């Protein structure tokens, strides 16, 4: 599997990470190196092996449908970059 | 080691000294704060030092003790890795992204130590978002290994390891996703334990790879790790992966004899790539355990070579999902003057994350993207089960598994900086236990060129007591854990004297 500059640009867009023009060649090369490492997996015989998502194969614990949290909005918004009237402010999305 | 000097005391010594009235919590806290102030400009092991609040906690602890109402860690100073959220104290996770982040709540681990009366000296340095094996990826600069300040302390818990090794804290919390407690413990000559997955609450511990991350203690002795784990371990309903199982007193079995103990020695952990001096130190340690009555059993963990490749699919995939929360909208860094929402996301994340974090997010996004999911993520999860099965089979016949913690002693800054794959192979012996969810420990077992070597002890699920017993017994007949870097144990030393 070869990875090219265009693939990195697409991934960066998907992950919403700006990559500097100056470092894109280096980024592409280092990611190609990492993918070459993980390609060793392809040699493993995994026929019929159930994928393992959790070390103890635990499942999500359920709890009663009750309110357990109190309102911390003011505490949470005190550390936000920009808020107004209890809302988080971001740059305008719709004109 | 002269343990009449305050900063040479173990946590067990400190508890005894506070109990007997030999010194107060305020005295020992002041002593540590002064040492940090004098020495940490050399080591850079702390990101934040809590001078005022530590002294207030120490005063409160002395008062409680005088009232006859002292909980287990009353007045004992420790440090927290800067990945654990601390209410009102900046928690950066070693990243520019969280340089201004002051959490409005405490992690469960932090809360547990507060309830036990501990004094928090500060928050320790780390690789950014715990991604690294050398502490070179921290936004706050690299941590220096006190054994040789031209070498790395290991990572990601390099700040906690150095703080303990340089006697700037008697113990520190840490986390381990692929070796981040054990490898720096090995490189800094201290004792560290990664518990079974689910044993210590992850609530308030900033997530890197949620199915692998686990908090644990770092200290100078196995006994101190047991004392710390007593505080850290336990079920937490706030962590959905926490396991509801009773917590033993981890100090209870420390003194058991090792007579009859079966130690599995995996041949795959002694193959090419292992430094010959490291191998010798580990072989000598195994011989020492044999003298104490343990039997060595040669075993095979046939899928060992696939652990690093599987990890570098699973960990980045989980990281890419976990780190999507850092978007500049609600907390942490936001870029200057974003022109629209997309620009805000792109530049906030492009400027706020360092290179290694970006690399892992991109690798994770790739492995999860349409068309590649089966070839990478599903395949890695299948291999993960094969790796776990290797251990399950081995534990049918042995009690613990032992080998080296890291393939080499500490390396120089920049030695692996431009080659991520070389850095990833630093964790070749530690990663498999995270994939399997097993507990692992590193214990000092010798030196190569005056650089410490770590012996790794891997236990069965929830068998931390036995691992601590083995480590403690090893530390009864060896003194590797009592060695300190030159100049560290003496009183009144100045920064730079250790060069």
Account of the protein in words:
The complex is a heterodimer of chains A (95) and B (499). Chain A is mainly alpha-helical. Chain A contains three helices and two strands; from the N terminus they run αααββ. Chain A has a domain of 39 residues: Histone, subunit A, CATH 1.10.20. Helices cover 33% and strands 4% of the residues of chain A. Chain A has a two-stranded antiparallel ribbon with strand order 1-2. In chain A, strand 1 and strand 2 form a beta hairpin. The radius of gyration of chain A is 22 Å and the shape is flat. The mean pLDDT of chain A is 92. Chain B is of the alpha/beta class. Chain B has one domain: Amidase signature (AS) enzymes (Alpha-Beta Complex). Chain B has an eight-stranded mixed sheet. In chain B, strands 1-3-2 form a three-stranded mixed sheet, sandwiched between helices. Chain B starts with 10 loop residues before the first helix and ends in a 22-residue tail after the last helix. The chains are: A mainly alpha (95), B alpha/beta (499). At the A-B interface, helix 1, helix 2 and helix 3 of A face helix 9, helix 10, helix 11, helix 12 and helix 13 of B.
Write a brief structural summary:
Chain A has 95 residues and is mostly helical.
Helix and strand arrangement:
The complex is a heterodimer of chains A (95) and B (499).
Chain A lengths: L4 H10 L9 H15 L34 H6 L4 E2 L2 E2 L7
Antiparallel strand pairs in A: 1-2
Helix pairs in contact in A: 1-2
Chain B lengths: L10 H10 L4 H19 L2 E4 L1 H16 L10 E5 L26 H8 L3 E6 L33 H8 L5 E6 L5 H7 L2 E4 L19 E6 L2 H11 L29 E5 L9 H16 L3 E5 L7 H16 L18 H12 L2 H14 L4 H22 L5 E5 L15 H5 L6 H6 L3 E9 L2 E9 L4 H14 L22
Parallel strand pairs in B: 2-3, 7-8, 7-9
Antiparallel strand pairs in B: 1-3, 4-6, 5-6, 5-10, 9-11, 10-11
Helix pairs in contact in B: 2-3, 7-15, 9-11, 9-12
